[in-house]
Amino acid sequence: MGILNYTTINLVISKRLLLNMNNTRKETIHIIGIGGIGMSAIAEILHNSNYKVQGSDMQSNDNVDRLQKLGIEVYIGHNANNIKQAQVVVHSSAIKSDNVELIVARENNKTILHRSDILAEIIKDKYVIAVSGSSGKTTTTAMIASIFNHSGTDATVIVGGILNSSRNNSKLSKSDIFLIEADESDGTMLKIPANIAVLTSINDDHIDHYSTFDNLKNAFSQFVNEADSAILPDSVGINCDTGNSITFGFKNGSIRASNIKQHVSNIEFDVLINNNHRIKNVVLSNAIGIHKVSNALAAISVAVKLGISNADIKKGLLEFKGVARRFSLIADVKGVKLIEDYAHHPNEIQATLAAARLITKGKVIGIVEPLRFARIHNFFNGFVRVFMMFDYVILTPVHPPEDEPISGCGIDDIQKALISNGFSNVEIMNNALLISHFINDSTNSGDVVLFIGAGSNIAKLARETVELTSEVEV
């Protein structure tokens, strides 16, 4: 563990904020969309580092509630008055340029930073492990965090999901080590100066930002090649400095899994490292599906790179508690498992379905909230293909509700396409009471109901359905 040279955290905000560190801490940083999973983590890290933080969001949620309990002022709704006391305004790519708070910030010459800019400043001069990829980055980051926790490796963590172990999406440490999830959707990962760049997977997603799949692959190639060292799948198909990388996988990787055994709620497997060293009987808790083994291999690769012992690697994965909304069991109703999953790309949904098939000999029902009309447009045929693999599909309105509709890309269009392809087991619902009645009337013990989507409506529907469905046993 020679790299772990612990020092007191000294978060350095850019000169664009203020030259004097002490003065900067007296400034007010306003975060637009503070309730988002990534923004709330940044807000908490800054707050716990004694910065004055406030923010706004269109509606309250669990992240907002948690921040408010910490003493962070959060305004519900966007309003010009919200930023009066702020000198710095932070936004993400989800915030449109005509947002009233951004407009007023520009008019009043306030310092405006994109989420990626302030994140890059937070981690400046730190030892950074950055995890990116089209799928699996949140789970992989969480697995690395679990290994760190159980090996005594002190690290600040910023992750794009709620860790079940801490019920939080961030952790502030006293070391120079930062473990962060680096978002690829808007190119944020390219602004992260990583010592170790971890790439989990590549799907043809976010083409609206990158224009072409080749551009996306080139961006990921830049991400791994600009780091001191890289960890990536053996079959990812991008240019990478092989002398500066570790590959993982099931066939040709330098770190490979074998003897994989799926159990009811965990996976057991062996790990072969560089063809001459084996970690036997690794047990990954709270995991179902071969894709979780891939995530674990990426996490193990980081641990091997840092010199963490086999015993601590095994302990960290055995004690892994999972991430909320990542194939999370939320209820068992008369033997019918209700599971939440964040999947929103056709490939991710197919992986979630495959995992569900592993734990049932009955039906798998998908209650799906599509994410954005542009994604439906880009992957319409892919969604239709995957939905036809379910036994029954219930479609809910597209998230977010304010997204601009695209003709021919609504949930009714998906329903029509499914029916025209011979799949008639599809309905449109957006009511927890109706869904709970459907579950009671149409399922049997052993069936699995998946609540699938990255948005807030599907999460709300899942909670309400659990409350309304009779004889819930978790």
Q: What separation lies between the terminal Cα atoms?
A: 41 Å
Give the structural class. alpha/beta
Biggest pleated-sheet summary? 10 strands, mixed
By DSSP (H or I, 4+ residues per run), the number of helices equals 16
Total strands: 22
Instruction: Report the β-strand fraction as a percent range.
Output: 15-25%
Coarse shape: globular
What is the spatial order of strands in the main beta sheet? 8-7-9-6-10-11-12-13-14-15
What helical percentage do the residues reach? 25-40%
Description:
Helix content is 34%, strand content 24%. With 474 residues, the protein is of the alpha/beta class. The two termini are 41 Å apart. The strands form 3 sheets. A 10-stranded mixed sheet has the order 8-7-9-6-10-11-12-13-14-15, with helices on both faces. Strands 20-19-18-21-17-16-22 form a 7-stranded mixed sheet, with helices on both faces. Helix 11 (346-358) runs parallel beside helix 13 (380-387) and helix 15 crosses helix 16. A hairpin with a 3-residue loop joins strand 13 and strand 14 (266-273). The protein has helices at residues 21-26, 37-48, 62-69, 100-107, 115-122, 137-151, 207-210, 213-225, 290-305, 310-318, 346-358, 373-378, 380-387, 411-420, 432-442, 456-468, and strands at 28-32, 52-57, 73-76, 88-91, 111-114, 127-132, 156-163, 168-171, 177-181, 196-199, 229-233, 245-249, 255-262, 266-273, 277-285, 328-333, 336-341, 364-368, 392-395, 426-428, 448-452, 472-473. It has 16 helices and 22 strands.
